[in-house]
Specification:
Layout lengths: L1 E4 L7 H8 L5 E5 L2 H14 L11 E6 L6 H14 L5 E7 L5 H14 L6 E3 L3 E2 L6 E8 L2 E10 L12 H8 L17 H10 L2 H7 L1 H14 L1
Parallel strand pairs: 1-3, 2-3, 2-4, 4-8
Antiparallel strand pairs: 5-7, 6-7, 7-8
């Protein structure tokens, strides 16, 4: 498996399209840099337990540098998917924030559709995954091809917090208490490096108990690209 890091805000789209996008099998689009680093580490951890195949997929990770940029960057990547004949899957990892996973997913899909312009693509109905309730799937139909869209929503609704983010799962992995009065996990896990360090030292099975949705999304991506 080959993993690339794309920085579309720092590189010209010409370079991205001609040097990288055309050779990709899948793209993992994250809301922020922390999500990207966590997802890459998890993929490396679970890679050994994934079924062995002769195919070595090329997977790129990139982040939207904030919630407000997700719809714009997602639609740009959908446009780029039209130019890539190899692309088979797009994974999007976003925070639930103050919404449910289902509502956040619906909002993202609606935003993508509203920005597609003249691009001749269709999205099939979004369905919740049977394994993880925070993973949703759809198909992008473009130029006679099908690209799998997989959306994973961060946040543990079981935690007594009003805003749910990636750090919810760090709390679970690190077995941290939730102080009275805390409204979001970033107040408790204020340095994502600590969470990344624990992921490095923890076995894949334990990691996937805390980050079930990311593990599942990456497993589905792997299935689609091998």
């Amino acid at each position: 498996m080959h993993i690339l890091q794309l920085k579309p805000h720092q590189e010209s789209f010409y370079k991205v399209i001609h040097d990288k996008i055309k050779g990709l099998d899948a793209i993992v689009l994250c809301e922020g840099a922390s999500d990207t680093e966590v997802a890459k580490k998890i993929l490396r951890k679970i890679e050994k337990k994934l079924p062995k195949t002769d195919k070595q997929p090329v997977i790129a990770f990139t982040d939207a540098e904030g919630k407000e940029n997700i719809p714009l960057l997602a639609s740009a990547l959908l446009l780029l998917s039209k130019l890539s004949r190899k692309l088979k899957a797009i994974v999007v990892i976003i925070d639930a924030d103050e919404d449910t996973a289902e509502k956040r997913t619906r909002s993202l899909v609606d935003s993508i559709l509203s920005r597609k312009g003249d691009l001749q693509l269709q999205l099939s109905d979004t369905k919740r995954d049977n394994t993880s309730s925070q993973v949703f799937m759809s198909n992008i139909h473009v130029n006679g091809r099908k690209i799998r869209l997989i959306i994973a929503v961060n946040g543990d609704p079981g935690l007594r917090l009003t805003k749910h983010t990636l750090e919810d799962h760090c709390i679970n992995l690190m077995e941290l208490p939730v102080p009275k009065g805390a409204t979001n996990a970033k107040q408790i896990v204020n340095d994502i490096a600590l969470c990344l360090d624990i992921i490095d030292k923890t076995d894949p099975q334990t990691i996937c108990k805390s980050f079930t949705h990311i593990c599942r999304a990456l497993e589905l991506l792997y299935t689609e690209t091998t």
